[in-house]
Design a protein that fits this description.
The complex is a heterodimer of chains A (181) and B (395). With 181 residues, chain A is α/β, with parallel strands linked by helices. Helix content of chain A is 35%, strand content 20%. Chain A has helices spanning 14-27, 117-124, 131-142, 147-157, 161-178; strands at residues 2-9, 31-36, 46-54, 69-72, 92-96, 111-115. Chain B has two domains: 2-247, 3-Layer(aba) Sandwich (Rossmann fold), CATH 3.40.50.970; 255-394, Rossmann fold (3-Layer(aba) Sandwich). In chain B, 38% of the residues lie in helices and 17% in strands. Chain B starts with 5 loop residues before the first strand and ends in an 8-residue tail after the last strand. The chains are: A alpha/beta (181), B alpha/beta (395). Chain A: This is pyruvate synthase.
Chain lengths: 181, 395
């Protein structure tokens, strides 16, 4: 089983990202489970969502404490949320930032990967909504989900031109991060 | 089975299950705490996907009152509520059961105030234990959905005619996305006959429901309700089996066991914690511990006989309760299990743990800790009942 924790801010679509990952992974032949860290939702406040992927049906219902992957939608969260908490030694922390991984001073042994998802989202979608771009990047860096499955899940959820723009951002992010696997 | 599954939110799966049961009247109060269940149902009605009256009322008390009227007039009815909303319905819940109206309601289990808390526990439905409603507790999203046609079939049986709560853990099941099979309309039409009660409110044939009963007859009404619960005990098992034959899925009838046959330590629980307990049991079994699970699916009617039988080889029984009867220092399941063993002469230690209150997470480590504490009984250290994961720094 692989466990993913997504950090974002209210309004950035972290819960949607988790849901889309679960849909895509299931279409890819895995069992999946996605749920928010249930909080009182406020726009801009830190929010957390969780995803589990497994070859077998998932029964476990607790939150995720030792994630294999951490996705950080907004680098400013690093100052206010302990995003590296519990991350597995061989895990990956994927951060949306224009900075290099070396500019983050973490104690974790997990490897840090960065990409400027905001720029990709602006280029392809025209809005700084990075959730779909980031799950494309996650698919690239992890190799756990095929990019086509992510794109199908997004297109189904957001049909038409919006979905198509997102699909381009997802593919670009995937291609960029696949080389860093 | 996998190729028929899709990933949806728990609330959507339940709303869809309600839809294929073809209810005539749905009533709910759409304010926090609510869920996407009635939101999705309103959408189905607005889109013409079901021919159903959807009543947006001014409070939960009105929601259940509207359904009492509709059900008495012969309608198949549904509502969903949670927490304070269910508490507000309390008075009318007795009316629904006393008038023998098979209303089905999903209770999305959440904590009660004060202090204000929107998260999951089961205090809300447990507090309605004595209202005369059937209560089943679901383990996962699929069961939360599959319970709906099962409960209509049980509740509308002419020998039962009792309202029923389908209890699903708030957030943990209502807001999770996971693969499920959405109930097929054609199968459900075959499984669930239409509701045609013998007695209905009808201006052409006037009769009274829930009318006056003085001391010379009131007792007998209560007796008949209890007898109907006894019938429900039978029907819950039968309907679970009929469901298995039709849909190929089974979650237990009144109870279900996991790794139970040779288990010396038996964990008893209700609701979504069961999945986590099963994973914990697999880990403990791989270390040679003979731990098993007895899932309680039906809390009302309480399956005392089935539980006694299932516990006959147990050396230690652990109960997990997401509720507390304050002043008894026990959860309801703990009390009920102890009570059902006593007159049968069974003196297996029953150790109660209260956990998951107000949404406190229940990781595998908590279940492990509980099992280790319960094992102290073998060394003569007996814990009657306690809060698991109590934060000593705060008390």
């Amino acid at each position: 089983m692989k466990e993913i924790r997504i950090h974002g801010r209210g309004g950035q679509g972290s819960v949607t990202a988790a849901e889309l990952l679960a849909v895509a992974a299931f279409e890819d032949g895995k069992y999946s489970q996605a749920f928010p860290a249930f909080g009182v939702e406020r726009r801009g406040a830190p929010v957390t969502a969780f995803v589990r992927l497994s070859d077998k049906p998932i029964r476990l219902r607790s939150q995720i404490y030792e994630p294999d992957y951490v996705i950080v939608q907004d680098a400013t969260l690093v100052d206010v949320v302990d995003v590296e908490k519990g991350a597995k030694c061989d895990g990956i922390i994927l951060i949306n930032t224009e900075k290099n991984p070396s500019s983050f001073k973490f104690d974790t042994k997990a490897s840090i990967k960065t990409l400027d998802a905001t720029k990709l989202a602006m280029d392809f979608i025209g809005k700084p909504i990075v959730n779909t771009t980031l799950i494309g990047a996650f698919a690239g860096v992890s190799g756990l989900i095929r990019p086509e499955s992510i794109i199908n899940a997004v297109m189904e959820r957001f049909p038409g031109p919006i979905g198509e723009k997102n699909a381009k951002a997802i593919q670009a992010a995937y291609d960029l991060m696949e080389t860093q696997r | 089975m996998r190729n028929r599954m899709i990933v949806v939110e728990g609330s959507y799966a339940v709303a869809h299950a309600v839809k294929v049961c073809r209810p005539n009247v749905i009533s709910a109060y759409p304010i926090t705490p609510q869920t996407h269940i009635v939101e999705n149902l309103s959408q189905f009605v607005a889109d013409g996907e079901i021919d159903c009256e959807s009543m947006n009322v001014e409070s939960e008390f009105s929601a259940i009152s509207a359904l009492i009227g509709a059900s008495a007039a012969g309608a198949r009815t549904y509502s969903s509520t949670t927490s304070q909303g269910l508490a507000l319905m309390h008075e009318a819940l007795f009316n629904a059961s006393g008038m023998r109206l098979p209303i089905i309601m999903t209770v999305v289990n959440r904590a009660l105030s004060a202090p204000i808390n929107i998260w999951n526990d089961q205090q809300d439905s447990i507090a309605q234990r004595d209202t005369g409603w059937i209560q089943l507790y679901a383990e996962d999203v699929q069961e939360s959905a599959d319970m709906i046609p099962q409960l209509y079939k049980i509740a509308e049986d002419s020998e039962v005619l009792l309202p029923a709560m389908a209890c699903m853990d708030g957030f943990i099941l209502s807001h999770v996305y996971e693969p499920v099979i959405l109930l097929e309309q054609s199968l459900t039409d075959e499984f669930l006959p239409s509701y045609s009660p013998e007695f209905v409110l009808d201006p052409k044939n006037p009769m009274s429901f829930g009318a006056f009963a003085d001391p010379s007859t009131y007792t007998e009404f209560r007796y008949k309700q209890e007898k109907a619960m006894g019938e429900a005990l039978e029907r819950i098992e039968e309907v679970a089996n009929e469901f298995m034959e039709k849909y190929g899925r089974y979650y237990g009838g009144l109870i279900d066991g996991y790794a139970l046959d040779d288990a010396e330590i038996v964990i008893m629980a209700m609701g979504s914690v069961i999945g986590t307990v099963k994973d914990t049991i697999d880990m403990l079994r791989s270390e040679g511990e003979t731990v098993g699970l007895l899932k309680v699916r039906s809390f009302r009617p309480f399956p005392a006989e089935a539980i006694r039988k299932a516990l006959r080889n147990a050396k230690v029984v652990i109960t997990l309760d997401k509720n507390i009867s304050i002043g008894k220092n026990e959860g309801a399941l703990c009390t009920e299990v102890k009570a059902c063993l006593y007159n049968a002469g069974v003196r297996t230690p029953v150790i109660g743990f209260m956990l998951g209150h107000g949404g406190r997470d229940i990781p595998v480590s908590t279940i492990m800790k509980i099992v280790n504490k319960a094992k102290l009984v073998e060394k003569g250290i007996f814990i009657e009942s306690e809060f698991a994961d109590l934060r000593e720094d705060l008390v």
